[in-house]
């Protein structure tokens, strides 16, 4: 009996040493955190020196968690080579994210295990200082688009990695085959073009309705440019009936509903295939997409030449003046716990200024003084379109949306499929008003 | 050092040390998360912030007061119906393939194979089968001359979509049920059949009076798996329809996942999971009660 308890004791001791080993490594983490939070002042100074172009004195090893897993071992290797010419003492490791970047980043936030350089997931701006370092000292602020998007208390925590706009990406040959000589400038002209395409047996617009996310531009971009109010999505906060037929939401959704009713979308919009649609747009079986400019390079990659793909703003009404939404992609940020924040900041600055990532990814460059090299974007701008910068999401609006379980693209699906679209708007107005009341806003 | 110990003590040490690892694994990956889940269900946690505000029973009140949350169980009903059909087919094949049939092992393997495949891969594959314009199912129907049927939007019609999805589940899990049934068939003593034969029973009578009663515990098990499976469907609609068209194929678990990961409401999602757990227990208890009545007479 006595011996048995010895062995039990031995087990307990072994177990507790294993567990305490885990614990002590955890302690190590927190002491690093302590160091990390004491360095920002140094970071400011060295960051200032980085501007002079002498990068040899910055050293360190940083990790960059990227969503572009396809670029690892290819473009990133080439970036790193060029980066190290300027900053020979900085080691950069590229870490591939899982498919859901946002989710993975949040899990790592909860676990306090952030990489040095990363993109900001969807968190309220008030939480930014908890996880990231201010980037004001990079000297880019005056040249940045969307510099206030991820800012809090006057400090900038995130810098846009690239911007995009939305419009009609089309197959030029399909347009020519259908006898469309000029790009449509009004909604009526647009419908006429669709009719011509349909007569030719070409599916006018690939909506990819089933996958839901391809409807994002209809509900996030179009309403605010129709209203000519960049802050329109946040104006929902002041009303109990944000969705009406005669405001931006109702008008934008009615457009896609009209396209579907006239048979200008896929034959069965509940059975669409995104990967196949890229090939079909490339081959001219489908004529158009209403998506962000990022899709241009993907269509070209799916099997056509660059000069066969065009891009023009969607004429949402008959006024003849057209606006399009300019929206930021992911934002670079430097983690607060980074062991070498200067190196991380230098890397972010380099990625924005010298990497050429925006052009590679088909984005509009986030720096104001840079022009896109993409022919389609030049073509787009030549139409005289006004690009409307968006405003950051109001967290109260986001909270009410989450509480009401409101997902705008899903609302768009319901709206298009419903027999009575007004009832869909009524339903969501009711949910909105209730959630707003529950949260006391 | 162990040789000085008595046999019993050695046995205890061996048992404890062998059990330790699986128990630790079980505790860390099953019980610890389960306890956390119950804890979260009383909070208002958003999924990443360090604070987890305590809200008491609010989440449970929300679950039971929001009719939308329970309405999605209607969609799970289709999976239940298909599950019953699946079990009937499985018993049929089990009985057939348990008899002396040429090439029965080949048939068994063929029917069991779908189960080995990864669920997401199966869903992806059936995406091509059910596609309206290019799908193999509609092409097949068209080539049979059933052109009006060949226009069907299998995944885009309210009401039909859940049965289309559930039929995929049937295809995948039927072989698994069948294998369990075959195992139980083989455990039925041969002499029962011989006695029945001597008494002049025909094959229908032996099926009803000998085979099925002897398989009852296994049928019970399979029904339990079917019911819980129907309540917990997730991967098929998640991959194939994302709950569409307009939420017509959204299942309960999918709603839980959306609540947690799309709407950042981990507290409510945890409460929904706990409620689902409660449901499974209730369904199991009712089923046990109903099915065991006959046996206790």
UniProtKB/TrEMBL annotation, chain A:
Keywords: Cell membrane, Lipoprotein, Membrane, Palmitate, Signal. Residues 1-21 form the signal peptide. InterPro entries: Bact_solute-bd_prot1, SBP. Residues 25-55 are annotated as: Disordered. Residues 25-44 have a biased composition (Polar residues). It comes from Paenibacillus cookii. Gene3D superfamilies: Periplasmic binding protein-like II. This is Sugar ABC transporter substrate-binding protein.
TrEMBL record, chain B:
Residues 76-287 form the ABC transmembrane type-1 domain. Keywords: Cell membrane, Membrane, Transmembrane, Transmembrane helix, Transport. CDD domains: TM_PBP2. The keyword Chaperone does not apply. The chain crosses the membrane at residues 12-32, 77-97, 109-130, 266-291. It comes from the Bacteria. It holds the Pfam family BPD_transp_1. Its main location: membrane. It is found in: Cell membrane. It is a multi-pass membrane protein. Belongs to the binding-protein-dependent transport system permease family. PANTHER family: ABC TRANSPORTER PERMEASE PROTEIN, DIACETYLCHITOBIOSE UPTAKE SYSTEM PERMEASE PROTEIN NGCF. This is ABC transporter permease. It comes from Paenibacillus cookii.
């Amino acid at each position: 009996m006595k011996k048995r308890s010895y062995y039990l004791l031995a087990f307990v001791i072994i177990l507790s040493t294993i567990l305490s080993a885990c614990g002590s490594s955890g302690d190590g983490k927190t002491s690093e955190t302590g160091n990390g939070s004491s360095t920002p002042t140094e970071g400011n100074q060295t960051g200032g020196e980085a501007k002079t172009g002498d990068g040899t004195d910055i050293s360190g090893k940083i990790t960059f968690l990227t969503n572009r897993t396809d670029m690892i071992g290819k473009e990133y290797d080439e970036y790193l080579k060029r980066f190290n010419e300027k900053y020979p003492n900085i080691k950069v490791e590229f870490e591939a994210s899982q498919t859901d970047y946002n989710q993975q980043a949040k899990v790592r936030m909860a676990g306090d295990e952030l990489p040095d350089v990363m993109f900001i997931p969807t968190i309220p701006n008030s939480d930014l200082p908890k996880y990231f370092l201010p980037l004001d000292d990079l000297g880019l602020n005056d040249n940045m688009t969307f510099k206030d998007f991820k800012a809090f208390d006057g400090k900038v925590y995130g810098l846009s990695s690239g911007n995009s706009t939305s419009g009609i990406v089309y197959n030029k040959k399909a347009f020519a085959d259908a006898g469309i000589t000029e790009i449509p400038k009004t909604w009526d002209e647009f419908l006429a073009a669709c009719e011509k395409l349909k007569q030719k047996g070409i599916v006018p617009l690939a909506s990819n309705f089933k996958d839901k996310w391809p409807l994002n531009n209809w509900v996030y971009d179009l309403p605010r440019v129709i209203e000519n109010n960049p802050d329109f999505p946040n104006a929902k906060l002041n009303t109990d009936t944000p969705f009406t037929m005669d405001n931006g939401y109702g008008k934008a959704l009615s457009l896609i509903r009209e396209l579907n009713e006239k048979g200008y979308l896929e034959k069965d919009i509940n059975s669409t295939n995104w990967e196949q649609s890229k090939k079909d747009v490339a081959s001219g079986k489908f004529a158009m997409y209403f998506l962000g400019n990022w899709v241009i390079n993907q269509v070209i990659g799916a099997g056509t030449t660059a000069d066969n793909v065009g891009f023009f703003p969607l004429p949402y009404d008959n006024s003849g003046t057209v606006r399009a939404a300019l929206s930021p992609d992911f934002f670079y940020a430097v983690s607060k716990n980074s062991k070498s924040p200067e190196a991380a900041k230098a890397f972010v600055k380099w990625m924005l200024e010298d990497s050429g990532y925006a052009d590679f990814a088909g984005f509009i460059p986030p720096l104001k003084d840079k022009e896109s090299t993409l022919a389609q974007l030049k073509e787009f701008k030549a139409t005289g379109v006004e690009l409307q910068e968006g405003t950051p999401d109001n967290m109260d609006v986001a909270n009410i949306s989450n509480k009401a379980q409101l997902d705008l693209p899903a609302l768009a699906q319901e709206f298009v499929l419903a027999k009575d679209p007004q009832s869909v708007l009524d339903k969501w107005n009711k949910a909105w008003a209730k959630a707003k009341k529950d949260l006391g806003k | 050092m162990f040789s000085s110990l008595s046999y019993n003590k050695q046995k205890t040490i061996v048992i404890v040390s062998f059990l330790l690892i699986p128990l630790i694994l079980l505790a860390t990956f099953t019980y610890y998360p389960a306890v956390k889940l119950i804890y979260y269900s009383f909070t208002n946690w958003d999924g990443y912030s360090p604070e987890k505000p305590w809200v008491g029973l609010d989440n449970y009140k929300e679950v039971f007061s929001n009719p939308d949350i329970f309405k999605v169980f209607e969609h799970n009903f289709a999976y239940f119906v298909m599950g019953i059909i699946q079990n009937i087919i499985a018993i049929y094949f089990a009985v057939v393939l348990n008899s002396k049939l040429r090439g029965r092992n080949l048939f068994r393997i063929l029917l069991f194979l779908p189960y080995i495949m990864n669920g997401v891969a199966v869903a992806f594959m059936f995406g091509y089968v059910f596609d309206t314009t290019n799908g193999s199912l509609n092409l097949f129907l068209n080539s049979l001359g059933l052109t009006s049927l060949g226009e069907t939007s299998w995944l885009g019609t309210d009401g039909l979509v859940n049965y289309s999805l559930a039929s995929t589940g049937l295809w995948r899990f039927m072989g698994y049920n069948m294998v369990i049934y075959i195992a139980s068939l083989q455990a039925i003593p041969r002499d029962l059949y011989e006695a029945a034969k001597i008494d002049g029973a025909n094959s229908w009578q032996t099926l009803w009076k000998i085979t099925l009663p002897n398989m009852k515990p296994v049928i019970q098990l399979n029904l339990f798996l079917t019911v819980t499976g129907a309540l917990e469907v997730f991967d098929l609609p998640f991959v194939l329809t994302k709950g569409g068209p307009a939420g017509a194929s959204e299942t309960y678990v999918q709603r839980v996942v959306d609540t947690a990961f799309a709407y950042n409401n981990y507290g409510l999602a945890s409460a929904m999971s706990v409620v689902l757990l409660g449901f499974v227990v209730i369904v199991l208890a009712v089923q046990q009660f109903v099915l065991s009545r006959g046996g206790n007479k």
